[in-house]
């Protein structure tokens, strides 16, 4: 197997590529804009980026690609993708034809979780749950340093489970783009926090500003964060009760809210079926770079 591991993070706005040596040292990183809404242009851009990387480094590598969706185990076509031009397309087959080698694909949240489990905040843990708290809510599961994809290629997709134990502050159940109502994503994404704050206060603020004002003594912003933490605690407790991971790593924009790491254990604890909570809830080692690193580690 090649010592060079190439990872590609195929996002809606950017395509990022990274090259790692076998031990995990980064030796190259580049990013380009994603061709908007054009599937074939996107496939060609990924292939060209890989080829340019190999020419620059003078060696051929293994290639893993993280995508905002999943590959159907029935058809081999992409499903559940936020980048809608990928849906129903044979992405892996097309990339393999262009690059003349096997390509490994995984959901971007799975790549995030794998990166942190291999040599990040979850290093050494047998079970790691990686959480994405951003414009959407996703997750990935890594067991013994391998991604768990599941029978339906949806393992870790906790964002489209119902929020546990909705109370008066959580009603009415918000509609979700997936067609259901009351999904975890409708409460725990960044836009969901902003929407909740505006509904309670009339103020249109983003999560970072809500945290800044809460730290400065704004009681309404503090209340918004307390509601958010209570919901996140209940949702993560459900994961802990099923997976019992050693480590939960938070990613996405909301993972930068430092208070989450102080407050979440107490929010989870009452809902965990145990007399003690040993699961660690931690920030990512590699931050926004974890997805692309995890794509490279698909060949670990």
The major β-sheet equals: 5 strands, mixed
What coarse outline follows from CA principal-axis ratios? Answer: globular
Overall tally of domains:
2
The strand count comes to 12
What is the residue-averaged pLDDT?
A: 95
Report the end-to-end length measured between terminal Cα atoms.
10 Å
User: Could you say which structural class the secondary elements and strand pairing correspond to?
Assistant: alpha/beta
CATH homology-level superfamily of the largest domain:
ATPase, nucleotide binding domain
Key phrases:
single chain; 300 residues; Nucleotidyltransferase, domain 5
Description:
There is one protein chain. This protein is of the alpha/beta class. It folds into two domains: 5-112 and 289-297, ATPase, nucleotide binding domain (Nucleotidyltransferase, domain 5, 2-Layer Sandwich); 123-284, Nucleotidyltransferase, domain 5. Helix content is 36%, strand content 20%. The protein has nine helices and twelve strands. The protein has helices at residues 39-57, 91-99, 108-119, 185-188, 190-201, 207-215, 219-243, 259-268, 290-297; strands at residues 5-10, 14-20, 26-33, 62-67, 70-71, 78-79, 103-107, 127-133, 137-143, 146-147, 247-251, 280-282. α1 (39-57) packs parallel to α2, α5 (190-201) packs across α7 and α6 packs across α7 (219-243).
In short:
This protein has 2 domains: 5-112 and 289-297, ATPase, nucleotide binding domain (Nucleotidyltransferase, domain 5), CATH 3.30.420.40; 123-284, Nucleotidyltransferase, domain 5 (2-Layer Sandwich). It is built from 9 helices and 12 strands.
